Amino acid sequence: MPALWGVSFDAAAMSGVVVEFLKTARSFADQGYRVHLDLGYDIKADKGRFFEPYRNERVPDWVTLDRVDGIARIAGYDQEFVAATLEAVRRDDVPETDRIAEELADAIVRTWEDRGVALVVVENGTLPENVAYTKALYLAIARYGAAHDLGRYVLWRDHDLMWQSEPAKYGSFPYPATPAMVNSPHIHYFALHEDARRRTLEWMPHLRNLDLLPNTFTEPSRPGRPDFLAHHGIAPGTKIIARFTRIIPQKRVDRDLHLAAQLPGTCLFIAGDTDEDPAETRKLRALAEELRVPVVFGGVLEPCESAGPGFSVRDLLAHADVVSFLTSYDYESFGNPIGEAIAAGVPYITSRYSLYDTVYAGYEAPVLDILSHDLPTPEFVRQVHELMTNAERRADVVAHNRRVGTHSREAANDLVGRLFPPAMGAGVRLSVVLPVFDEAANIEDVLLSLRDQQDIDPGSYEIVLVDNNSTDGTVEIARRFAESSPVAVHVISEREQGVACARRAGMEFAVRRSRNRKDPGERFYLVSADADCRVDSRWLTELLAVMERDKAAIGVCDYYYNAEHFVGRPRLWDAIQRTLRCRAVTFSLFGGFPDGKGFAVEREAYEDVGGIEIFYQLRNGRFVNHLSDDWDFGIRVASSGHDITYAPQSRVEINPRRVNHAIDEVISGRAYGNDGIIVMRDIRPEAPPTTVDLTEAEALQAWEFSIKDFTPKNTILPVLLTPSLLDEDAVVAFFGADLAAGLRTRIAEIKAEMRVVDFLPIHSYKTPSYRLYLEFRDEIFARLRATVGDDIGYPPPLPECFDAVPEDRFAEFVKYYCEDRESGEAHNYFGNGGVF
Question: Where is the Glycosyl transferase family domain (predicted)?
Fold first, then answer.
């Protein structure tokens, strides 16, 4: 198993920094990483623990406390050296640390080699407590990453940079003695909040790969111990204000005493080391006696994550009515107690410290404005009393904060999961990307069809399921399925709604993971599937065989409907089959264009054109994703000189609900929007599917819209993008020599005459394709009849606006019609996104 190496510059056995590390490391432990944590005793001088062995530090049993081998043998590197170096930093001197940094780097690399490290998490490494160690880390990261051909294998997170926590301690901006953050190909940086990110870029304006990774809130893994109150002498029914911070003047615990004095029947529980600042503890005890406040100094509690025998913060939270964080204004950059309260479902109260509104925007709590009032005001006391005694108010606040906290946790987990995805097996050659939204009714059948592929090694492909904000049991079903599947199933999330966004997220996830493999070997393919369409048992086998044979950039599948779903509806079935027969002919000639229901793209070509691009349109005053990301992507690939091939034996069964539950829109060609707006309509079977057949008039209307949408995109667009196709024998045979020559001439003329170019692929192809269709429609339909069958018939009637257009000016007015972007008439006439 690979190892994760964590290093904290905090030098504390269990601090807020370490707690956040554990939350991040847990997800990697679940992926199979062995987690090693260096607490930083050999880094930070002022904690007085240099080279001390670990003794009673409690961490979860899946974490191994570790440190760099041989570090104590580096000549000149000790607590006194680090303290003297930090003093030089305060004077903005640049100390001489290169020799020690080099030796430290060598020791770090040797340790990582010995442990089999594949991932590194650095916590607060930019804090200039030990500039020699920071320099050494940068050196070690570069050397180890290059030696093992690793990508961005380092998560470097700064919780509180020097200007946020104790600005007087580390010198003045721009901190010339502090090691500069580097644009390393191996490091992804994270700031805790937007203010930290902004200030980081003020200091390092050229820094790249800097994202936000906010506090996360993990719900309790076990209930609180019932004997907690009795052990501490607290009577049942007593209201409890919980305070768990260091007991030092900067934390302003005195404010809690003044608050509790105004809340009869309330006990203040103070968890912390009373020996850290004995004078402050004596002062607080005296104030409690003066104010006659029941107070318990509970000592240092074990961290929430602890499973040890002692009492933990979780036990206190289980019995607390509120958690307090009435700290000083400029001391804290963020408050771990608030995060623990949110996670445990306990209301919190706080002072408005300098970054509170940045870190906890959107959360709900009584907030004391300490710039105006040093001690709790009557109104603040009233709000706290209501929160402690009004059950309905308390429940509302807890529910609100939990919703916001859950979103924050999921967003952070998604970000880490995408940037540091699980390793990909050396034998995997295909990643099947499956965007899903509320597909609990279909997802297991779809996953089974993807899993049970014939004549292909289950270890040669994987499934990447991208949840797009499902509200049903889709994700739970997928996770259960993954537990027993011989084909690896990865479940990730995409928060921006839209199938295009989800498809892109899944493909980017697969690309990054495939790139992280050393010597990934043969061509690697990204495969798109649809969450409501089952695939045939040889879908991947046939698709891979054709892609390998033709060495094409994109492989396009065949699609079909199951005839059993259309029994008793011969007119509808006939309209569908005519469209699919036309498709089979043109795709065999031109390769076709990818449809999200099933296509593959070779990774190099995917990256060459920039991957899936998301376009946006305004719909009812809101920006929405454009539906045609798959077509746009295919157009970019084809126009970049890459080949597209058709795999007719690689087949996908289309879910009939697309027709059954939107039959009126299907008939009229509006199933995916109108007036140029093409968006996915979420079609769910809210009622029994329609089973009656179309009337003759409806069947004709459906066919006409279908063929109008099909013809410009599938018979004209390929040669518009690649005119050289018109020189190929098979294409000339299909069109006939005269039509091929006419198309070649008009394509050159139209390209030359266009003065205003819309560079978005979804639009750029429409105007010339529509123009060519209208000019050559009779000839094209003649060739379709000759090739596909007489039942293809003749072109649908022209729009009435052409009735008054003179024949010799027809092509001129076709141009105006097709370029009329404001009315969208041409978009509507051509069916706007297809029917079948």
Answer: 230-361
